[in-house]
Amino acid sequence: MTAPPLRLETLSGEALRAALPGLSRLRLAVFAEWPYLYAGDPAYEERYLAAYAEDPAAAVVVAFDGATPVGMASCQPMTSSHGTVPAAFRARGLDPARYCYFGESVLLPPYRGRGAGVGFFAAREAHARSLGLPAAAFCAVVRNPNDPRRPGDTVPLDAFWRRRGYVHHPDLSCVFHWREIGDDRETPHVLSFWLKDPL
Known about the structure:
The chain has 199 residues and is an alpha+beta fold. It contains 5 helices and 7 strands.
């Protein structure tokens, strides 16, 4: 029997703040996987997500299985996002004020393939349009396909993103620092952008 679609709800402000502990656990679980291999901590995660609750123009779309959050995707005006993101656009002569920045999209493995990914994009694009932003962008970490840590059953998301109308711009990138699982310090990671312009 086909599993029913997950319930998606767009949260902001106090409703988002109440969901922060569950959402931070989601980020820690999913980003520990390939390709991010992120070794985070719950306190940092809650602070990171609290910034969305404090931004009246930000939104987080949450996928629920009953009352349990099993996935989330965030967005906010690029001008409100991490400084490295708008700086990368300005350096290429692009105006960050045109873009809604999609910060992350995470979903626990048992719930994949049930439409949440498509729903995350649709909800965030609707939010971008409600803000009067004509374009959207997100970035993804760049990894060597021959990295020995890459699971053999990995399926790149490029085709899925292209079906949503996004175009890869490998020459448009930024650098984020995080500690990978097994490391004792943060290291730099290049992330390249995908754009949908116009929405």
